[in-house]
Amino acid sequence: MSAKLIKGAEVAKQIREELAAEVKSIKEKYGVEPGLVTILVGENPASQSYVRAKQKAAHELGFYSVQDNQPADISEDNLLALIDKYNKDPKIDGILVQLPLPKHINENKVLYAIDPGKDVDAFHPFNVGKLMIGQPDYLPCTPAGIQELLIRSGTETSGAEVVVVGRSNIVGKPIAVMMMQKGKGANATVTVCHTRTKDVQFHTKRADILIVAAGVTEYVKGDWIKPGAVVIDVGVNEVGQTADGKRILKGDVAFDEAKEVASAITPVPGGVGPMTITMLMKNTVRACKVHHKIKD
Ligand SMILES: Nc1nc(=O)c2c([nH]1)NC[C@@H]1CN(c3ccc(C(=O)N[C@@H](CCC(=O)O)C(=O)O)cc3)C=[N+]21
Questions:
Q1: How far apart are CA 291 and CA 219, in angstroms?
Q2: Which residues carry out catalysis?
Q3: Disulfide engineering: 58 pairs with which of 65, 118, 257, 276, CB 3.0-4.6 Å?
Q4: What does the domain layout of the chain look like in residue ranges?
Q5: For residue 1, what pLDDT band results from cuts at 50, 70 and 90?
Q6: Is 3.40.50.10860 the CATH classification of the domain at 30-115?
């Protein structure tokens, strides 16, 4: 058996086309365009490449977009002042501070400084809290992308056994919360595994939908997966570079084994990653509509 591929890159392209049409109509009717600033501190090559991809997507959708690069030794106070500037900038609807930040900067302090209404990553405790009680204004981008892939691939989530491997604030925790809520692409029974889980395989083998965000290259093997399960691989592990300097990526799931067992699986690259960026764009369009009181 060979699993159906859930092609995130293709779904992402389709959603971006929908968004581009929406941006165009907002511009025509209201004379405004969604504004996104991506703030990059330092010169981490992976971060540079992600931010470049976000800027490219923003340009293609017709956003007003600003790339703000800051030196690695910027002080915390100056970074906070910069965020305050964008909080007050009426052309900016969404603020993204690329993580990780240098060690001398308190990441939480920076994330808490972003106006929750411009927090298109949905990392501010206000937005995390609203998600928890099932009243989100913005969904965190990677979990939103995962849920969208489940919906658009026709995966039944209601009553499904969902097992999440990983408990990060960015992926594991929020996707677990989202899958247990009432509503479309949710209503699941959720188990969360992490580094202290006694028997991870016991849990993964029970999953109808297995979501892996462990941060360990090819952590989940083929025989950890229930035959017919849907597997979502959130891992983006750089395992080397090609001769011409392109990053070689592998997921957190041993893909070649897993595809023989699962009924459907996301590839890496081309799976969850492109969806993450697309959901950032979707949140920015939403922010723009809220800021300009535009109803659907
Ligand atoms: N404030 C903040 N928000 C983020 O959303 C955020 C962040 N910081 N820091 C880093 C992580 C990582 N992340 C990815 C986004 C897209 C791909 C993606 O598009 N990956 C492509 C491949 C890209 C490549 O080839 O390098 C794919 O999987 O097909 C991956 C990873 C967002 N993050």
A1: 43
A2: 54, 98, 121
A3: 65
A4: 30-115, 141-273
A5: low
A6: yes
The type of residue at 3 is: A
- How far is Cα 197 from Cα 199, in angstroms, rounded to an integer? 6
Atom number, ligand 1, closest to the C-alpha of residue 121 = 3
Q: How far apart are CA 61 and CA 69, in angstroms?
A: 22
CA of 142 to the centre of ligand 1 (A): 9
Q: Looking at the DSSP assignment, which residues form a beta bridge with residue 68?
A: 39
Question: What mean pLDDT, rounded, does the chain reach?
Answer: 97
d(CA 270, CA 181): 27
d(CA 279, CA 20): 13
| Tokens representing residue 290 in the block | 């809220």
**Amino acid, res. 271:** G
Residue 245 pLDDT class (50, 70, 90 cuts): confident
3-state secondary structure of 212: strand
| The CATH number of domain 141-273, selected from 3.90.79.10, 3.40.50.360, 3.40.50.720, 3.30.70.270 | 3.40.50.720
Q: Which of 276, 281, 282, 284 to mutate to test the pocket of ligand 1 (most atoms within 8 A of CB)?
A: 276
Residue 36, H or E segment: strand 35-41
Q: Enumerate residues lining ligand 1, CB below 6 A.
A: 49-50, 53, 96-99, 121, 141, 236, 247, 249, 268-270, 273-274, 276-277
Quote the pTM value: 0.96
Confidence grade of residue 280 (pLDDT, cut at 50, 70, 90): very high
- Which tokens hold the place of 28? 């025509």
Annotated binding site for NADP(+): which residue ranges? 166-168, 236
Chain length of the chain: 296
Count CB-CB contacts under 10 A for residue 100: 12
**β-bridge mates for residue 23, sequence order:** none
Residue type at position 96: L
